[in-house]
Amino acid sequence: MSAAQWRKAMNFSDAGRNWSGGRPVAATPSDARSATRSAPAAQAGVSLGRLWSHIRWRHVIVLAAVLVYPWIASPFFTYQIGAQALALGLIALSLTFLAGYGGMLSLAQMTVAGIAGYIVAILGVSGTPEISLGWPWWLVVILAVAGATLAATFIGWLSVRTEGIYTIMITLAIGMAFFYLAQQNYAIFNGFQGFQKVVPPVVLGIDWRGPVPFYYLALFWALAGYFFVKYLTRAPFGIALQGVRDNARRMRALGFSPVAHRVAAYAVAGAIAGIGGVLLVWYNGLISPGSVGTSWLINILIIAVIGGLRHPVGSFIGAIVFVLLQNFAIDLIDRERFNLVIGLGFLVIVLFSPDGLLGWWDKVKEWALRRTGGRRSAGRSNEWRSVGVPQVRPVGRQ
Length: 398
Known about the structure:
By secondary structure, this protein is mainly α. The protein contains 16 helices and six strands. 37% of the residues are buried.
């Protein structure tokens, strides 16, 4: 049974069924014609109603803040803090999708992003013209994202048959293998020097290397990645993936393929990480083996855990915290002790809030609900309704 068939079977609002008796009811011709005319409008209304029901004032405030941010912040904070956090958050979002919704913890997401960055440098324009091919930027970007997706699919195909520590070790081994390949190969990857002067193009008369244009470019793709993940987790594929995460044996008995869903999840995460890798190589202006070393493989995990692996927005919150500490750790402690500050913060969050900073926020909301006498049951009912699970009224309690 496919995911579409499962969702159709779970749709209790089908006009062709009488759920009080359980048998199909034949529709009259006039009913069929009216239903055909009103179906698109009704579906559009339901979709807009569901979308509007999830919009809160905090979403409007956050969106307005990130749009206005470059106009009230200095170029340093716009580019060094904002743009970098959005690019890193997009890569961490791919790990959040895999770990939070698929139950697969991968340490190779920075490797996938690095593959996209190297494709941009090798096929595009860089400060090493004897290696770079100088192809058009739009073709290079498409090939970079496609290459990252294929690489992530291959990594998923190798690792999805394992679980737990074995998955972590396989993805870590793949990441280290790519690191040494890039460091020791000079004909293609230019060895330990990598590629310098890898900058975004000038398109439509806009120099995307500028702090404000590049910030909005990164913001656009960060919002696109966030809303795509939010939509996908409520789509049939996302619901089936979460079912595979919770009980793979039961999903296999229902006709789903856990391996296929997990490999597809890796492919989706690879596309997201590939876009983040293109943005990151344009932000840094270079790509080298150090960009895909062990430290950055771990840093992406730290960013995702700090924000919260169960929340897509947590990857961007973790990226903001990480970038702020990275830039201002010298004011707290010696520059060489930056990893100590990150490690201590990571340890505190893991010990006291396994769900990251957003886990603490949820605890504060629960405390506020208890103080005001609110109930979480209504919120849970709305949450289940938002993902398409029907609300069935008990028989005999009309």
